[in-house]
């Protein structure tokens, strides 16, 4: 066999290997994006000061296949057919939620919310009397979650839209990756 034929076959084999590697990489990326992790862009100020408008974060889509959402976790869910929201889980099915005098109560017990300390301080500095408006007790139905934004005075959450169905949950926010200088875990 001539050197030319051997060289031509080697180039074809190398090209074929590159094509296979590219197809496999694309398929893996699609599988990871579809079933495991997805990027999400925070829109609005409802999660201030924990998350900021236009921050980009990674959502773990697989976690709730092996466990249920827990109070305190930040989740992304389908608010409707065209919009996803990001909020914090406050209570799960069977829990009773209310706010009295700026105190979050779940099943009659005060819930400590250390992630709100900076927001509460800012509200008081600005002369706001209440950080969270009172609302009467709400029982979370089976198959639902009660969610709230960390920016309690500027959040369309379960106080407005009602408890959300767990079937609408996309996943748990894990960490921000943009802007680069503010990479951090979201919990």
TrEMBL record:
EC number: 3.4.21.89
SUPFAM superfamilies: LexA/Signal peptidase
Record: active site: 46, 87
Molecular function terms, GO-annotated: serine-type endopeptidase activity; signal peptidase activity
Keyword Isomerase included in the entry's annotation: no
Keywords, ordered alphabetically: Cell membrane, Hydrolase, Membrane, Protease, Transmembrane, Transmembrane helix
Gene3D superfamilies, sorted: Umud Fragment, subunit A
Cellular component terms (Gene Ontology): plasma membrane
Transport as UniProt keyword: no
Compartments in which it is found: Cell membrane; Membrane
Enzyme class per UniProt: hydrolase
Transmembrane segments annotated in the record for this chain: 21-42
One Pfam family matching this protein: Peptidase_S26
Domain Peptidase S26 span(s) in chain numbering: 16-178
Catalytically driven reaction(s): Cleavage of hydrophobic, N-terminal signal or leader sequences from secreted and periplasmic proteins
Topology term for the membrane: Single-pass type II membrane protein
Chief location of this protein within or outside the cell: membrane
One GO term (biological process): signal peptide processing
Family statement: Belongs to the peptidase S26 family.
Protein name as catalogued: Signal peptidase I
Native organism taxonomy: Bacteria, Bacillati, Bacillota, Bacilli, Bacillales
Gene designation per UniProt: lepB
């Amino acid at each position: 066999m001539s050197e030319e034929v051997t060289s031509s076959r080697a180039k074809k084999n190398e090209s074929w290997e590159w094509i296979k590697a590219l197809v496999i990489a694309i398929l893996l990326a699609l599988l990871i994006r579809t079933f495991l992790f997805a990027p999400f862009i925070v829109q609005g100020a409802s999660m201030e000061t924990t998350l900021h408008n236009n921050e980009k974060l990674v959502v773990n889509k697989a976690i709730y296949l092996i466990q249920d959402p827990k109070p305190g976790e930040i989740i992304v869910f389908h608010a409707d057919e065209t919009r996803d929201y990001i909020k914090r889980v406050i209570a799960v099915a069977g829990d009773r939620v209310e706010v009295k005098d700026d105190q979050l109560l779940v099943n009659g017990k005060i819930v400590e919310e250390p992630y709100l300390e900076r927001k509460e301080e800012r509200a008081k500095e600005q002369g706001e009397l209440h950080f969270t408006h009172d609302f009467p007790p709400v029982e979370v139905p089976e198959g639902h979650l009660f969610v709230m934004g960390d920016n309690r005075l500027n959040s369309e959450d379960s106080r407005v839209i009602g408890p959300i169905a767990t079937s609408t949950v996309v996943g748990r926010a894990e960490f921000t990756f943009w802007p680069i200088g503010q990479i951090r875990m979201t919990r």
